[in-house]
Amino acid sequence: MKKLSLSKSQITQANSINLIEFAKSNGFILENGGRRALHAKQSGGLYFFRDSNKYYHFSTDTSGGPIDFVMQFWRMNFKEAVAYLLGTDLPRHHPLPSAPKDPGQLVLPDKAPNYRRVAWYLIHVRGIDQEIVSQLMHEKKLYQQDKTGNCVFVGYDQYAEVKYCSLRGTRPERPFKQDRAYSDKSYPFHIVGTSRKLYVSESPIDAMSHATLAKLAGQDWKADHRISLGCLSDQALERFLQHHDITSIIFCLDNDMNATFQDGSPAPNWGQKAAFKFAQKYSKLGYQTAIQTPQYKDFNLDLTALRQTQKSGFAKECEWDYER
Hints:
The chain is of the alpha+beta class. It has 10 helices and 14 strands. α3 packs across α4. The longest helix is centred in the C-terminal third of the chain and has 15 residues.
């Protein structure tokens, strides 16, 4: 392998392998990650772009084409990666004809007449406190999608204009997660606080779970700000700090302790690796930073584990009306 000589045409051929099809054939589970991208589940923020045949990995801030992808995730050198790709029989990537950029406009899904299914799912399945669910519905940051019953999480800009929308299924047996077309992840889902402290989670449900755990511990859950990144990029955090007076940032990202590469070998703890990187970055920018690591994979699993140990009448918490 060390003596293998590669021609430019072979390198070009290897890099023309359809990266999305290659990822699927190697066990990556892909879901809609936006208008032009697909997101790989449990991957530390791994996205594949349809138009360019490239990927971007948020937690390691790396990107590239098929050769770079194999080098990173299969831990091969350049020549090994090219040889590996040349041995596949997957279709080649054919770029679409270039078209004028369509900026598009985010359109929120239709709202259901009531929000009972979302309330049931978040309170009974996810263990989130009723008061927190109710307040976010009142603030129009959370509602139920008509017909599908999905949770709809909404992010706004400083002028109260809708900029981001994330959908989450409410059927535990059929997981579903998707960002609405034209969503801008740099505008986070935000649970408003009054202090100068900010807790940062990966998802809206984790942010709501963290607030619930604070309330169960006897703390004022309304005191501090909480946002979700929607992935493992800090672009939402960067924008949030431009418009809010924050001095302390606590990173509450996932604990991916059992993460593996596609060959089954141990992978880095993507969430905690990102938390450490962000804590260092924002400390250098003058913020007080800290990391809160969930005992399980995320703070919602911590919350549901705690709920299972409670003997109080939690089942009665949902006895209220979720009309708009």
